[in-house]
Amino acid sequence: MSQQKGRLDGKVAVITGAASGMGWATVHLFLNEGAAVVGFDLNAENGADLADSVSAAGASDRFRFLAGDVAQEEDIKNAVALAAESFGRLDIMFNNAGVGGAFGPIVETELSHWEDTFAINMRGVFLGTKYAARQMIKQGEGGAIINTASVAGLSGGSGPTAYSAAKAGVINFTKNAALEFAPDNIRVNAICPGLIFTPLAHRGRIEQLEETMRRTQPWPQRGEPEHIANAALYLASAESAFVTGEAHVVDGGYSVSGSLSDQRQSGMGPRPRAGVAYGTTGRAPMVRDLEP
Questions:
Q1: pLDDT tens digits, residue range 196-230?
Q2: Considering the domain 12-289 in this protein, what is its CATH number?
Q3: CB 146, CB 232: distance < 8 Å
Q4: Choosing from 131, 163, 254, 278, which is the catalytic residue?
């Protein structure tokens, strides 16, 4: 790890969805910038790999991992408490955990799959904000809360309906939370990633995702987890001291390209399908074929 003064020296962060993709990259960037970090993820096996990578980087004294579910109130309370107990405070909450969730036509979407999508992508953001804000208010020194939304939450036709609706909810929730917590000097912002090359996005079909990126994204290089980590660093640091209530788009021009509808109702293959995908949580997807 760098010995130079970092932009987050002395800060303490909780990062959910920490054990893969954007969360993994953000854990390492925040540690490299001087923060202490609690990584939180449902996938304990991936979490062990993350802890090993942090140890190899020489930052294990500033890192803790906790396995848990962002949709469960007690688990989120425990993550915030672990930060306060281990490092004395909480300055940054990155509500990053998410899944692709329910996909397919509305008339073929199971209620339980819809509810799972909102539990992880929306309820998790609410709970993370609630308990992080409580801790920050108690400390009396402000803080930064960052929520992972998506360009799919900015318009119709840019993702599966349940996912898009949940991410739109994250954006609106962020704006309202920013208003509520401004008197406490707590900034609340969202990041809206476009197509980012993560295990959650490509699900093992690397060439397919890369082709989609080439077809729909103006910027020639693919979106990487580090691009989102850098956006989170900006929103967590003093450099964004006058920024709150914003939906910060990081998408290589994807959302202004006019090709968002290419991603509508992503069906996990060439045949029409419906079901639910749980990303890198360790939970298996549930998929059924539909009649053409």
A1: 887 655 555 667 667 766 777 788 888 899 999 99
A2: 3.40.50.720
A3: yes
A4: 163
